[in-house]
Amino acid sequence: MQPLSNKTAKLSDSVIRRMTRISLDCGAINLSQGFPDFDPPKALMDRLAQVAYEGPHQYSPTWGNKNYRDALCKKQTQFLGIPLDSDDNILATCGSTEAMMAALMAITNPGDKIVLFSPFFENYAAQSLLLSTESIYIPLTPPSYDFDPNQLEDAFKQGAKAMILCNPSNPSGKVFTYDELKTIADLAIKYDVYVITDEVYEHIVYEPNKYTYMAALPGMWERTICCSSLSKTYSITGWRLGYVVACKEIVDRCKKMHDFLTVCAPSPLQEAAIAGLSQPLSYYDELRDHYTHMKQIFTDGLRNLNINFTDPQGAYFVMVDISEFSHGDDVQFCEDLAHKVGVGAVPGSSFFKEDVRHLARFHFAKKDETLYAALDRLSSIREKMK
Ligand code: GLN
To answer: How confident is the model at residue 327 (pLDDT cuts 50, 70, 90)?
Structure first.
């Protein structure tokens, strides 16, 4: 038999999703793969029930239903502050994972250099392997997760084609300041680098931190590809509704990729999600307040247990220092934690290029009772993880 592909041989499964399987197998409270255990807004569920009878149930036009793109366009125009055109600047994809893949395929050729901050969301390395691009990693050093602009400039000088910027960052919880983004933008313009932004946590930013859209900085619209989704904003990770927002030239290329990758995003779900996209601005404040509340419960609980962590500025993850319990093996720690303590977390090493093994990522997008139950289980960590 001929060998199967080298690329898929090299690809490992997603550690995040592996931890979900382990958590399910052993009955652990799953704080590994980030998704809520509470309902989406009632308006979305009610609309979904109607759509079940009204349709559509067949393919949408490839780029997305017109009314869905119009609603998305109106909402993003408001937040981005740039007048978008729903035909030219918006592509509906299957989750931001597809949006990122379409964006990378639209921009890169095999061998192109892509700059990433490390720690990074694990999908990017897998996508880079599939596309045969070369990754250049710039450390975001814990616990502050600051970066050195000189290192970024050195990477750009090596002829980078693009950089991937996850803001707010998964897993670190860093929200890049205006000044940091301006530094990146100025370098991107100077060295002619595209910036692909992963913005799925754009509405989960804790006060007093402020969210700045890279695409809105001077000179950045033409070279920024915004990839995001409705998953986190409306608590519908299973609906797989993502999108690309960019200038027409880039969106046209992404459309070609999407056409052959997935044909279209799920059409009944696009229709129902308009109920989310049409929410008043107060919805986004309430979402932030809800996440602030969940963060408070989880981080207060960790403090009470004398467990060290970095307080996130955005997104819904906490990087916890596990040096006291892990004996240098964070992967084994997370497996043991799921089995012995009954809480699922993701080994920090799966996000870092550098050899970092003293961290584990927990998420707190959970009902109060789930978080209290997880903290109750974690209270036995010292006894059970000796
Ligand atoms: N973004 C979420 C996380 O990092 C979900 C990842 C995924 O499985 N798509 O946990």
So the answer is: confident
* Ligand 1 midpoint to CA 209 (Å): 23
State whether the beta carbon of 16 lies less than 6 angstroms from ligand 1: yes
What's the 312 CA to ligand 1 centre distance in angstroms?
A: 17
Mutate to test the pocket of ligand 1, among 97, 169, 237 (most ligand atoms within 8 A of CB): 237
At 141, give phi and psi (nearest 5°). -85, 120
d(CA 293, CA 297): 6
Measured in Å, residue 240 CA sits from the centre of ligand 1 at 12
Cα of 2 from ligand 1 centre, angstroms: 34
> Mind listing the domains of the chain with CATH numbers?
6-40+282-384 (3.90.1150.10), 42-277 (3.40.640.10)
Q: How far apart are CA 174 and CA 182, in angstroms?
A: 16
Q: What is the mean pLDDT of residues 13-34?
A: 94
The model carries a pTM of 0.96
Is the Cβ atom of 60 under 6 angstroms away from ligand 1? no
Q: Is the CB of 238 under 6 A from ligand 1?
A: no
Listed residue (383, 278, 354) closest to 117, CA to CA: 354
Q: Are 137 and 353 in contact (CB under 8 A)?
A: yes
What's the Cα-to-Cα distance from 164 to each of 58, 97, 196, rounded to whole Å? 34, 13, 5
Strand residue runs (E) in 82-231: 90-94, 113-118, 134-139, 162-166, 194-198, 224-229
> Helices 282-304 and 368-378: crossing angle, nearest 10°?
20
Q: Closest residue (by CA) to atom 1 of ligand 1?
A: 34
pLDDT of 386 higher than 80: no
Distance (Å, rounded) from C-alpha 270 to C-alpha 65?
7
pLDDT band at 144 (very low <50, low <70, confident <90, very high): confident
The string of pLDDT tens digits covering residues 46-98 is 999 999 999 999 999 999 999 999 999 999 999 999 999 999 999 999 999 99
Cα of 33 to ligand 1 centre, how many Å? 5
**Per-residue pLDDT for 336 more than 80?**
yes
Within 10 angstroms of residue 78's Cβ, the number of other Cβ atoms is 11
